[in-house]
């Protein structure tokens, strides 16, 4: 059984059995990346409390998530994209930012108003991104209007966020909460923190004049489709009620390689959510006190959220429209015969007979 060295992984948290299985699965992956290159960078459009912005999304290569090295979340394959050795030095991280700025200059005439930085871990964890680098990145983007940085709730503090807010950048922390239900987060996702930690992070962000974007996971493993849908609707509502949490991003679970979800999927024990479930959750929460968006990765494929194959692109397009307009009537324009099958699944699937339909 693989065993990472104690200085690079968290101990005593989460479920030991999940961690042990995930460590073994992840150890099958041997791929190394250049610490001077970002994992990925692209330009897109995003809906924010100040309207729709052109955005530059940066996936910084920071050595990967420490929690993932402990075993980590059952659906997450991101550690596969980390660099060897566990940490990336300040200069190399700043080289990655330069590569991203070049990408922006080459691909758009206008500077993006919104910069989003993800790390496949926690940007605010100083073992991943040193304080010096955080301050330098805030300085680099001080002329932009909005920034989003990704972090687990434990690392969110008013002082760290002040690096950004002191430049008058509207700042948000993206928190991978996954679900508002502690039992589902612990037992299905294998994340170690509680909803109360998320609430505390929101309070820290609020104190710094920053906001929080909650990332929720639609249909973690071990939940049936109706259980997942119910959990998602109540999670969105609970997040929207927390002061400081102004946006909820619902991510349908997709089957990533080298994860527990992948093992279940391979043996016929997991089906990613139906796009009808995603649409239904958006409709049911459209009047909540937060922007609710969703971007189903790999939609229409077996490994991503999908319906019957005929209507997937149409439903995905309606979801994209909803993201920008927050108007649930976009879903009135899509229909398909497979909705009847989905209704049956919602009525009849239980955790001992799932997936009822693949
Ligand atoms: S989902 Fe986030 S916290 Fe969990 S293992 Fe992946 S990167 Fe780490
Ligand atoms: Zn269909």
UniProtKB/TrEMBL annotation:
Q: Domain Elp3/MiaA/NifB-like radical SAM core: where?
A: 55-284
Calcium found in the keyword field:
no
* Alphabetical list of InterPro entries matching this protein: ELP3, Elp3/MiaA/NifB-like_rSAM, RaSEA
MF terms per GO, please?
A: 4 iron, 4 sulfur cluster binding; catalytic activity; metal ion binding
Name the coenzymes or cofactors required. [4Fe-4S] cluster
For biological process, the GO terms are: tRNA wobble base 5-methoxycarbonylmethyl-2-thiouridinylation
User: Does this entry carry the keyword Glycoprotein?
Assistant: no
Which superkingdom? Archaea
Q: Cellular component GO terms, alphabetically?
A: cytoplasm
Q: Which keywords accompany this UniProt record?
A: 4Fe-4S, Iron, Iron-sulfur, Metal-binding, S-adenosyl-L-methionine
Quote the NCBIfam families the UniProt record gives: archaeosine biosynthesis radical SAM protein RaSEA
Looking up PANTHER family in the UniProt record yields: ELONGATOR COMPLEX PROTEIN 3, HISTONE ACETYLTRANSFERASE-RELATED
The identity of this protein, by name, is Archaeosine biosynthesis radical SAM protein RaSEA
Lineage of the species this protein comes from:
Archaea, Methanobacteriati, Methanobacteriota, Stenosarchaea group, Halobacteria
């Amino acid at each position: 059984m693989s065993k990472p060295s104690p200085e690079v992984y968290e101990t005593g948290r989460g479920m030991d059995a999940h961690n042990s299985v995930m460590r073994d699965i992840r150890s099958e992956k041997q791929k190394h990346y250049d610490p001077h290159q970002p994992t990925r960078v692209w330009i897109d459009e995003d809906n924010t409390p100040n309207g729709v912005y052109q955005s530059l999304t940066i996936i910084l290569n920071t050595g990967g998530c420490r929690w993932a090295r402990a075993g980590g979340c059952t659906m997450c394959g991101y550690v596969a994209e980390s660099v060897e050795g566990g940490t990336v030095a300040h200069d190399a991280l700043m080289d990655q930012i330069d590569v991203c700025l070049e990408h922006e200059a080459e691909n758009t005439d206008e500077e993006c108003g919104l910069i989003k930085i993800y790390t496949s871990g926690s940007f605010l964890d100083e073992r991943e991104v040193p304080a010096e680098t955080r301050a330098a990145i805030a300085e680099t983007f001080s002329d932009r209007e909005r920034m989003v940085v990704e972090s687990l709730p434990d690392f969110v503090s008013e002082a760290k966020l002040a690096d950004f807010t002191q430049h008058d950048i509207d700042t948000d922390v993206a928190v991978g909460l996954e679900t508002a239900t502690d039992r589902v987060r612990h037992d299905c996702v294998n994340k170690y923190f509680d909803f109360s930690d998320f609430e505390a992070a929101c309070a820290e962000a609020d104190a710094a004049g920053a906001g929080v974007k909650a990332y929720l996971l639609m249909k973690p493993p071990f939940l049936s489709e109706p259980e997942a849908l119910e959990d998602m609707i109540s999670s969105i509502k609970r997040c929207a009620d927390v002061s400081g949490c102004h946006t909820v991003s619902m991510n349908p679970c997709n089957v990533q390689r080298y994860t527990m979800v992948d093992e279940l999927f391979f043996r016929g024990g997991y089906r990613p959510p139906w796009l009808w479930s995603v649409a239904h959750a958006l409709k049911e929460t459209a009047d909540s006190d937060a922007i609710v968006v969703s971007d189903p990765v790999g939609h229409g494929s077996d490994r991503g959220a999908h319906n019957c194959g005929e209507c997937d692109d149409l439903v995905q397009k309606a979801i994209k429209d909803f993201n920008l307009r927050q108007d649930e009537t976009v879903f009135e324009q899509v229909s398909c015969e497979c909705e009847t099958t989905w209704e049956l699944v919602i009525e009849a699937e239980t955790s001992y007979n799932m997936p009822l339909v693949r």
